[in-house]
Amino acid sequence: MTTSHAEADTHDREDSAGVDLTALAKYLNGALEGGVTGDLAVSLISGGRSNPTYRVADADRTWVLRRPPYGHVLPSAHDMKREFTVISGLAGTAVPVPEAVLLCEDKDVLGASFYLMELVDGMPVGTVEQASALTPDDRRRLGLDLADTLADLHSVDPDAVGLGSFGRPDGYLERQLDRWSRQWEASRTTDRPEVSVLLDKLRRALPTSHFPGIVHGDVKLDNVLASRGDAGKIVAVLDWEMATLGDTLADVGIMLSFWDQPGAVDNPVTKGLARLDGFPTRAELLDRYATQRGIDIPDIDWYTVFADFKIAVILEGINARHAQGDTVGGGFDDVGDMVGPLLHRALDLAAASPVSELRR
Fold first, then answer.
1. Mean pLDDT on 241-252
2. Domain spanning 123-359, CATH architecture
3. What is the pLDDT of residues 88-143, one digit of tens each?
4. Mean pLDDT rounded to a whole number for the chain
5. Following DSSP, what letter does each residue of 3-69 receive, concatenated?
6. Which CATH superfamily, name and number, covers 21-118?
């Protein structure tokens, strides 16, 4: 899951854990125009449960450095080139992204590929505490702007921004089911029979894709920054590690999975965030998105059930890395406890769905 750029934390492990400052400075002196000025300072940015993300500064400039997790990384996951490519392509579109600065695929520098991007001066809004500081009007406008921003992303012509070969929309949902099934088997720390039940339901009810486009893969308020001058306006969309070309409604399912509602079981990641006064309802969010895109959306339950499953698999992978001591920073101790509730929430939604194949 993501990090915000806004604030750095000091944790039990050294802030620059995993970052060889000497090697980084030597590389940047050769790769950056003008090199670096003075000594580099590096601090871990708080909030991330996936890719370690650092604030890197010399005497004159500040950047954000993203690298893959430490320890075991699942195949095709945490691809730094993927993130760098998509934010480079989206520069200049209606989708607000940080400026891509530099990609390093030489693993000898820091032990893994990494990239630098612009440090966006924005405000994190991805926790109940952060969003509580906003007014109800700001929260409503922020929620609707998330739907608008997602519609803007899905309206981008991949070929027009150099991303036409970024993925294969045909067969995307089938491949997603296969991928996340494999990743569950590769990272699971305990047996959970509900996984096979969910996968059986999802395969039987697999919808036909009608809306191909650029998919972000992890749409939630924790992956955006709001304007410091207008908290209802998104100034950056972050965390593009799962971006590809695919069925854009998969992003809508993820957005709704993270959009908690009164009377429903919360997503354990967001902990009731969207239930704060002012945020639009799921129905309003979905209607706003459909209106902005000018499309009629079929039943969305399959995509929301799949989103809960996918998020559970991601959390299980993070939990496995944390158990092996391969995470940096805090906020990991309760990750394993989130997996079961998400799987059960997905089963409950499937059981109540008007989609008969999901109910069976």
1. 97
2. Alpha-Beta Complex (3.90)
3. 999 999 999 999 999 999 999 999 999 999 999 999 999 999 999 999 999 999 99
4. 90
5. --SS-B---SS-TTTT--HHHHHHHHHHHSTT---S--EEEEBTT-SSS-EEEEE-SS-EEEEE-PP
6. Phosphorylase Kinase; domain 1 (3.30.200.20)
